[in-house]
Amino acid sequence: MLEAITRALDRFRGSGDAAVTVPPMDGALRPNFSIENASLLHSIEAPDNLVSYAGTILFSSGSRLLELRREEGSAVERELLSSPVTCLASHASGTLAIGLAEGTIRLSGGLHDGTVLTQVGDRKIVCATAATFADADTLLVCLGSQQCPAADWKHDLMANHASGSVWRIDLKSLAATCLADALAYPYGIVADSCGRIIVSESWRHRIVQVAPESAPLTLYGDIPGYPARMVLDLESKELWLAVFAPRLQLIEFVLREDEYRKRMMKELDPEWWIAPSLHHPASFLEPLQGGGLKQLGELKPWAPSRSYGLLVRLDADCQPIESFHSRANGTRHGVTSCLPDGSSVIVASKGGDAIVAIEH
Questions:
Q1: 92: closest CA among 51, 152, 149?
Q2: What residues pair up with 179 in beta bridges, in sequence order?
Q3: Would you say 220 and 206 are in contact if contact means Cβ atoms under 8 Å apart?
Q4: How many separate domains does the chain show?
């Protein structure tokens, strides 16, 4: 009863979940040009899912699984899959987990070679967004949505869905335990050295700790963007978080205007929706191409933009301590994946068709 009254008051006052305010990028998130100025390792269409595997660096591009040859600035195709890759996870024992858009998770190599999952617990795999190994026999999986496949992430956001879940899978018996349910698009997952399972929840702009039979605990909330995948730096115990798009007051407003939003989704192509984007503006038909974006023919870095490139370094308490940016006038937007590699971190700009290395 009290919760219903609180929600009603929030809607009346425009506060809480009904607020359309967006926190500024300041402090540790102060904008810079680190991603835009980073060294280019390789150009390829929509790179994603960076993982370290058997001494190599693997990533995906659509349905292709590739090996990055960092020193050569090239990539070699290792396998052509039957549908686009939606997530990758690797373990030191030699097992590689590959999530596919067709609704499967395939295990290759190691102790569980050849295992194919089409269902997790009582859930059909519709949208496997992230995975990681807790140990050689335990796989942790994020199912972003039960209503939309990964390619339709804009639909999931603009429809205000919250059907995501997080699962622990025993690969010996294939028994699955639900760690969290009714999440708004879980998109990244790590298991840290303290035994915590930490998940990025995109549509609620937060990082949470999940555990069976308990509500998610917010560790870092009100992020000024939509968080994607995370990776744990085993040496420093720090987390690296990819943020694939910025939040905007206009988008926050549209999400709360049901009649307008539903008509927009029905009548317009998703590319022209007032919604986040992975790539920098490429057409005059896109929203936000008007007032104030350009001055003397130059796109300003502080201009409102539906796309952005952002990587955040978090301490062991999941608080931001440093960030790396590609701003509105840049092209390396849509950062969905990252991987620490020695003194640098490798970043996949899915919207900018680039893999870059940032020294830190």
A1: 51
A2: none
A3: yes
A4: 1
Domain span holding position 47: 27-279+300-359
172 inside domain: yes
Indicate whether 174 belongs to any domain: yes
* pLDDT tens column, 244-303: 999 999 999 999 999 999 999 999 999 999 999 999 877 777 776 554 456 566 778 888
CATH of residue 42's domain is 2.120.10.30
**Angle (CA) 94 238 86, round 5°:** 50
| 294 domain-assigned | no
- Range with the lowest mean pLDDT among 19-28, 209-218, 245-254? 19-28
* Token code pair at residue 132: 């990681």
Domain for residue 20, yes or no? no
Asked whether 240 and 312 are in contact (CB, 8 A), the reply is: yes
Lowest pLDDT segment from 46-55, 233-242, 344-353: 233-242
